[in-house]
Amino acid sequence: MLRIGEFSALTQVSIKTLRHYDEVGLLKPLYVDPHSGYRYYSASQMAQLNRILALRDLDLSLEQIASLLKEGVSADALRGMLTLRQIDLENRVREETETLCRVKARLRLIELEGKAATEVVLREVPLQWIASLREPIPAYRQVGALIGKAQSLLGPLNRHGPKVVLVHEEDFKDEDIDAEAGVYLPDSTSVPSPLRVYQLQPALVATAVHHGPFNRIAEAYESLLRWIDANGYHKKGPTRELFLHVAVPVTREDASNVTEIQVPVEKAVEQIGREVNV
Questions:
Q1: Domains in the chain: ranges and CATH
Q2: pLDDT mean by block of 10 residues, the chain; 278 residues
């Protein structure tokens, strides 16, 4: 048998907590010395203690835990409960991490106000073959899943490049985003459904190359917005994101990532003139 101090040290549960579990009837010592009052525990009590601690991590009260233990919660049931809790916590961590990244990115944009964070160049891009998968995604952060799905379908065609994502929405949407992921090809080829091969038309694009993590790509987009507005252009057609270098394993935080953003544009006055003529 182990004295309470030894049991506390080896289980990493404080003496105060063990005494409290004794008082409320959750985990009684195996033996209490009638003269000294010392509590003694056994390694065989670890199973009960582990159940108590697991149920505490599920945010259950001590009364609820006592009731479940009295009913004899099985290891399988406990495993299922903990698995659901694990999924919930992982989702919350992911959401909080994304929120933190957005806050950092916005702070960075505020620091860069009035400055051109990324150089913008106007150029013509030629006719381009592309093999791609186009389907809605639930949120912009899910574009990676669409890229992965496209790559698995493309198979050997992935050796061509670069990889590209097109966003077909005219404005920003929080969900159900019309997106397309694929790879540029030197010429036409046959692909299985739901992939398709077609030619992206030539376009005049305002382009910026973002060197850095994906979660700071808003800096490049802000530079593009400022340049387009200052030079009398407006957006015409889906934005293209070309992934010139992506670190492996893929993360949104890797500073070595290189992304070229191409925004098809035309002069605003030209568009107004066409609308009047129509």
A1: 2-73 (1.10.1660.10), 120-277 (3.20.80.10)
A2: 90 92 92 91 90 87 87 80 84 77 62 66 94 92 88 91 89 86 94 94 93 82 86 91 84 83 85 47
